[in-house]
Amino acid sequence: MSLHLQRDLEALKKEILQLGNLVETAINTSIQALNNREIALADRVFELEEEINEKEVHIEEECLKILALHQQVAVEHLHQLMEPAAAPTAEPAATP
Length: 96
Known about the structure:
The protein is an all-alpha fold.
């Protein structure tokens, strides 16, 4: 795998982890807002939802960019992985 692809995938992984943290924060805040009946916390949940949606769109765009930029590398890597499986095997002779 190319160094550029590895770097891009690592950056994508970090963004996905950040998205997960935002979602976790939104869930915890919504539980607090519900339990304490706090409008300010409920408003914060809506703000977090907006951030989450924006981050999700950004991650999708990054995925498409990575696929477009590294498609050839990925195909070559897949071919290398599949070569041993594609090698012909000797079949035993059929007996009458």
